Each structure stands twice: as structure tokens, then as C-alpha cells.
Amino acid sequence: MRWIDFELRGDFITLDRLLKATGLAETGGQAKALVAEGKVQVDGRDELRKSCKLRAGQVVAVPGARVRLHPPVALAPAIPATS
């Protein structure tokens, strides 16, 4: 089983976009087909909503792989240069 760690860029990502972004689906259409065929689980439950919102802490599973979603890493504020 392959594990993929995925860092969100905002509060959420939709399931079909996650599958494409992680390379688990080559196209958006393929991602939607995986979901429609019942081959995707979110937090251990079958998920049939192609555009459900996923948030940090959730785990998405497809045959052969699991994806852990992580919150975005907050960047430290820039320190102004002093002369």
C-alpha cells in the first residue's frame, strides 16, 4: 500500500481534484469515474460524491494507495530589512 502525504493550499480540496493532483487519476474524467464506480473511500467509508470537500486530517483510499491530507504550512511573515 502506497501512502501519499498531500498538503492543502487552502481550507479544502474536492475529491476529484485530489485524485488528479496526486496522480491517482490521469484526468478529471478518470477521477470522476473512480468515484462513480465506488472505488474511493474517505475516512473508511465509501464516497460517491465526486466533488465532496476534503479537509486536513482526512484520509482518502483507492485500490493500492492512501492519501493523508495535511493543513497548509503557514509561512512566517517577512521580516523587513533594516538599513
Give the tags.
83 residues; 19% helix; two-stranded antiparallel ribbon; 5-stranded mixed β-sheet; 7 strands; Structural Genomics Hypothetical 15.5 Kd Protein In mrcA-pckA Intergenic Region, Chain A; alpha+beta
Percentage of residues in helical conformation = 10-25%
Structurally, the number of domains stands at: 1
Terminal-residue CA separation: 54 Å
Q: Which residue ranges are poorly predicted, with pLDDT under 50 across at least 5 consecutive positions?
A: none
- Structural class by sheet pairing and helices: alpha+beta
> What integer is the average pLDDT?
92
Number of helices, counting only DSSP H or I runs of 4 residues or more: 2
Assembly status: single chain
User: Strand portion, in percent?
Assistant: 25-35%
Name of the level-1 CATH class: Alpha Beta
Tell me about the largest β-sheet. 5 strands, mixed
Computed Rg? 16 Å
Count all strands and give the number: 7
Care to give the gist of this entry?
The protein is of the alpha+beta class and 83 residues long.
Q: What this model shows, in words?
A:
By secondary structure, the protein is of the alpha+beta class. It has a single domain (2-70), classed as Roll (Structural Genomics Hypothetical 15.5 Kd Protein In mrcA-pckA Intergenic Region, Chain A). It is 19% helix and 29% strand. It contains two helices and seven strands, in the order E-E-H-H-E-E-E-E-E.
List the helices and strands and how they pair.
Blueprint: E1 2-7, E2 13-14, H1 15-21, H2 28-36, E3 41-42, E4 45-46, E5 53-54, E6 59-62, E7 65-70
Parallel strand pairs: 1-7
Antiparallel strand pairs: 2-5, 3-4, 3-6, 6-7
Helix pairs in contact: 1-2
